[in-house]
Write a structure and sequence with these properties.
single chain, four-stranded antiparallel beta sheet, Rossmann fold, about 240 residues, 9 strands, disordered C terminus, alpha/beta
């Protein structure tokens, strides 16, 4: 049988913030396969945000290789990494990062204005596709032209998911997107997110400190275990 295709491969990674004595992240290897749903857990301060920064090219490691979709993004210039992220990565931010002066539907189609690849994947029916996506995420069509500030937190969350999903990016990253929801709404949101990721054949990386969500995913990683060497170094420095 053929081995699963890797979408993400991080090797010999070391990243240290300027004022830190020891690395925030230091590990040998992390591979993530195509269409995999991966849960990454860890307490505050374990390096989750740093890992997401590396995966999206917002930051680059001092040592090591960050390969996304067969591209070593750590070797790209900042503007090239920005373009790569816009074309291939859908990101659901913890605080959603929606534009308050735009309507719900205009927030969703925004990535397609920055990426010709994602716009092409939609196939010319941009607003229609966005509307269908929002409806599948249980958002009423009557809300399409409502400003973001008039929506509830739960509605904003689903708009953020639709924005990340539009144009079928190969990699979907969710950073603590359910932290403000109760258990029932949290579970329903993740199920919807997974359904949409499967339809788009996207790889889903979901980062959270909540271990109760872990069983919903194909695989889970404890960041402290992955980052054991860095933790050992930090303890030795005390």
């Amino acid at each position: 049988m053929n081995k699963p295709t890797k979408v993400v491969s991080l090797s010999q990674i070391s990243y240290r913030w300027a004022n830190d004595i020891s690395p925030t992240l230091k590990f040998d290897q992390l591979d993530i396969n195509r269409s995999e749903h991966l849960f990454i857990k860890g307490p505050s301060g374990s390096g989750k945000s740093t890992l997401l920064g590396l995966l999206t090219g917002i930051i680059t490691p001092q040592n090591g290789k960050v390969q996304i979709l067969d591209t070593d993004i750590s070797t790209l210039k900042q503007n090239q990494r920005d373009k790569f992220r816009a074309d291939h990565i859908g990101y659901i931010f913890q605080q959603f990062n929606l534009l308050p002066y735009l309507s719900m539907i205009d927030n969703v189609i925004l990535p397609c204005h920055f990426s010709s690849i994602r716009k092409k994947n939609v196939g010319g029916e941009l607003r229609k596709t966005a509307t269908q996506l929002l409806k599948r995420l249980h958002l009423d069509e009557k809300l399409l032209n409502k400003p973001i500030v008039e929506l509830s937190i739960g509605q904003q969350q689903r708009v953020a998911a639709a924005r990340a999903l539009i144009g079928r990016p190969e990699l979907l990253i969710a950073d603590e997107p359910t932290s403000s929801l109760d258990f029932d709404n949290r579970t329903a949101f993740i199920e919807l997110l997974m359904e949409e990721a499967e339809l788009a054949k996207s790889t889903l990386i979901f980062v959270s400190h909540d271990p109760t969500l872990e069983s919903m995913f194909d695989r889970s990683i404890q960041l402290n275990d992955l980052n054991e060497q860095a933790i050992t170094l930090a303890m030795g420095a005390k």
